[in-house]
């Protein structure tokens, strides 16, 4: 919506400049013009064309600037803004005497030309000086902070904000991640997520109502524990559902979307957004099972194939053991014979030591712990 408005404003400004610019032409040229109204339309058309070109150029510049701002460290962004403001202030202070000088009509264009050149020159100068020396100024304000020094040197990148999806709030494991210190930076909860939790809490379905209330209680507990680190973004984005609005919020803030929804994580990856899949993180943090590892496993039920028994490790991994169907309820020594990683989880091949080597059985690992 912003881009069409920008193009329209540049188009109108260019057309108005060409239309009104006729009055600024020298009188000797205006005398020779037979159709003054036609000249206005011609200059207005040329002004609209060049204004449209300037609008396209401004849009490209604005998009590039927004990409830089989203990926730029906060301290560098603030220092550059301060440097630009100081540069413009110095330019206008030096420009004031020139604007007050009485100049003849023939050289009156010197004043606007001097204004444009001085503002551009001193603005760029202040911007560049802040980029080079702004981080050094950070040391003066906080010399005892090692993190501030690393950020000032560009060695350490500031932590990005974590944007919570409804699934990770209802899941509840976000509390453990925050308490363990694995998540850094601010935690952002979108207004669309709060609305969705409230809708679930008001649902007539008991299961949905329980999930909604559990999510709202968790947010209240996190607010009490972490205070201002938990931020509620009240921006109401337009979109189809909470997922679409979360993607727009992630793109605008440059943060990291934290979700347990596999499909939402893939959509975020397609849109080149930062995303952290909580289910994938849990799987990655599980201990690796290597061929030859000896396990003590309790057989709890039958497997799908003949002679297979099923047990579970402490992290919830489902183990299918060959030649163990008759040993249900017993704890047996099991040896891992192989492992295979699949998109759905991990498959491990094992055998029961008491029965000798048999055909390898498959061990499947679910996306989340049991």
Q: SSE order in H/E notation? A: HHHHHHEHHEHHEHEHEHEEEEEE
Mean pLDDT: 77
Measured as a percent range, the helix fraction is: 40-55%
Q: Compute the gyration radius: what is it?
A: 33 Å
Strand order of the largest sheet: 6-7-8-11-10-9
Instruction: Give the overall silhouette.
Output: elongated
* Oligomeric state of this protein: single chain
Compute the number of helices: 13
Structural class of the secondary elements? alpha/beta
Termini Cα gap: 47 Å
Main beta sheet: 6 strands, antiparallel, barrel
β-strand amount: 15-25%
pLDDT < 50 runs, ≥5 residues: 356-370
Q: Kindly state the number of beta strands.
A: 11
Descriptive keywords:
370 residues; six-stranded antiparallel beta barrel; five-stranded parallel sheet; 55% helix; elongated
How would you describe the overall organization of this protein?
With about 375 residues, the protein is of the alpha/beta class. The protein is built from 13 helices and eleven strands. It has helices at about 1-20, 25-30, 35-70, 75-100, 110-140, 145-150, 165-170, 175-180, 190-200, 205-225, 240-255, 260-270, 280-285; strands at about 160-165, 185-190, 230-235, 255-260, 275, 295-300, 310, 320, 330-340, 345-350, 360-365. It has a six-stranded antiparallel β-barrel with strand order 6-7-8-11-10-9. The chain has a five-stranded parallel beta sheet with strand order 3-2-1-4-5. Strand 10 and strand 11 (about 360-365) form a beta hairpin. Helix 5 (about 110-140) packs antiparallel against helix 6. The two termini are about 45 Å apart.
């Amino acid at each position: 919506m912003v881009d069409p408005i920008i193009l329209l404003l540049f188009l109108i400004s260019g057309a108005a400049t060409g239309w009104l610019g006729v009055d600024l032409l020298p009188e000797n040229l205006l005398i020779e013009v037979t159709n003054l109204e036609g000249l206005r339309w011609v200059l207005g058309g040329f002004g609209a064309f060049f204004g449209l070109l300037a609008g396209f150029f401004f849009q490209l510049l604005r998009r590039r600037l927004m990409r830089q701002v989203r990926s730029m460290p906060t301290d560098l962004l603030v220092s550059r803004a301060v440097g630009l403001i100081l540069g413009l202030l110095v330019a206008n202070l030096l420009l004031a005497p020139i604007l007050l000088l009485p100049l003849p009509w023939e050289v009156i264009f010197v004043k606007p030309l001097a204004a444009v050149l001085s503002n551009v020159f001193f603005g760029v100068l202040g911007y560049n000086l802040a980029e080079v020396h702004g981080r050094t100024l950070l040391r003066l304000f906080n010399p005892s902070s090692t993190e501030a020094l690393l950020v000032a040197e560009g060695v350490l990148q500031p932590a990005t904000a974590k944007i919570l999806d409804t699934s990770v709030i209802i899941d509840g494991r976000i509390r453990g991640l925050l308490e363990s210190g694995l998540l850094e930076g601010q935690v952002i909860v979108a207004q669309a997520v709060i609305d969705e939790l409230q809708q679930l809490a008001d649902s007539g379905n008991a299961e949905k109502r329980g999930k909604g209330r559990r999510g709202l209680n968790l947010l209240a507990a996190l607010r009490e524990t972490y205070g201002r680190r938990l931020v509620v973004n009240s921006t109401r984005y337009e979109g189809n559902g909470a997922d679409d609005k979360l993607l727009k919020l992630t793109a605008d803030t440059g943060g990291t979307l934290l979700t347990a929804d596999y499909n939402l994580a893939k959509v975020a990856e397609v849109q080149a957004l930062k995303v952290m899949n909580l289910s994938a993180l849990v799987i990655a943090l599980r201990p690796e099972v290597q061929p030859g590892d000896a396990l003590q496993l309790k057989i709890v039920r039958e497997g799908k194939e003949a002679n297979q028994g099923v047990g579970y490790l402490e992290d919830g991994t489902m183990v299918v053991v060959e030649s163990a169907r008759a040993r249900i309820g017993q704890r047996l020594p099991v040896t891992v014979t192989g492992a295979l990683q699949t998109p759905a989880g991990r498959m491990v091949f094992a055998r029961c030591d008491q029965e000798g080597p048999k055909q390898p059985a498959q061990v499947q690992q679910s996306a989340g712990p049991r």
